[in-house]
Amino acid sequence: MWKKVLYLAAAAAISLSGCSSKSEPTTSKKTQTVDQNKENQSDHGKSEEKEEYAYHFPLTGIGTNEEPGKRAVAVMINNFPAARPQSGLQKADVTYELLAEGDITRFLSIFQSELPEKVGPVRSARDYFIELAKGYDSLYIAHGYSPEALKMLKSGYIDNINGIQYDGTLFKRASFRKAPHNSYITFANIEKGADKLGYDMNQLPDPLPFMTGKEADKLTGDPAKEVMITYSHGNAFHVMYEYDKAKKKYMRYSDGELTADLDTKEPVQLDNIFIVETDHKVVDNKGRRDINLTSGGNAYLLQKGMVKKVQWQNVDGRILPYENGEPLKFVQGKTWINFVPASPGMDNMVSFKNE
């Protein structure tokens, strides 16, 4: 940037000007990988916006001056009413919510930028959750598995630590809840298990696409202060997101109760709500499902108190928003992705309220 320096001589009224340049810092290859502002700015934005951070967290886009060199950890988290409130959800960068058996949803929470002390209750693996975790090259944490999931884990498809093998050692049972709603693991034990099993925990995930702050300020859409997703006929699995204008965040509710951490009471606060519609099929007498993660389809994207009807695509294992065939970006921050069955479909399961 050029700086003008003016020297004024009152008697002679002579003006002299000079300029000096300040060179930009050298950017390493890894910095370029995680620097979302540089990757995602328009040419106009590049000329106007000053980069404030050396790095950006790859799954939130939030700036940091410390190199975010951690592998993503994906944890299966129980959402049965007896497992609420959960521990650690508020620290997740990305959380997927999908149906398991019956009307019961389960979470896959992906941690990278922030790590809670402990997380849980941890629940059993399903094949489609494994596929989603694989999209971030995550270390996959679960307690138990379906037959199809067990085949995938035994094949070495994804690095994983499972409570079946480490119940009572890496995984601990809480006395105040009953099995299978009482299995917890600390991130210290996740690191201990990863070291024992020889897993590399320094593999930074590829970044998600994020907007700059100026791009986010220009977002358009239909106003939607609240959105309700009805997963069941009862209220236990009714999910509501409410936009808090003061905080510029979405708050999440299950069965009317704020989703917050069991110990700290810190609420889940979100910047992107992505609701995708896809085919679900029950495949056995236990009610286990096959969920289509690859076809793409209709979706809703909620950001900054507004909603757009968009499409979703699977890009290298990640579920991402598109509009008219063009990729969309996320607002910097945390993201929650809900899957709903194509039958009965989004029009019957998702409702919006503006006030």
From TrEMBL:
Pfam families per UniProt: DUF3048, DUF3048_C
Signal peptide (UniProt feature, chain positions): 1-22
SUPFAM superfamilies noted in UniProt: YerB-like
InterPro entries associated with the record: DUF3048_C (IPR035328), DUF3048_N (IPR021416), YerB-like_sf (IPR023158)
Keyword Signal attributed: yes
Domain DUF3048: 59-199, 228-337
Gene3D superfamilies in UniProt: YerB-like (3.50.90.10)
Designated name of the protein: DUF3048 family protein
Low complexity bias (residue ranges): 20-33
Protein keywords: Signal
Top-level taxon of origin: Bacteria
Record's compositionally biased regions (Basic and acidic residues): 36-50
Chain residue ranges for the region called Disordered: 19-50
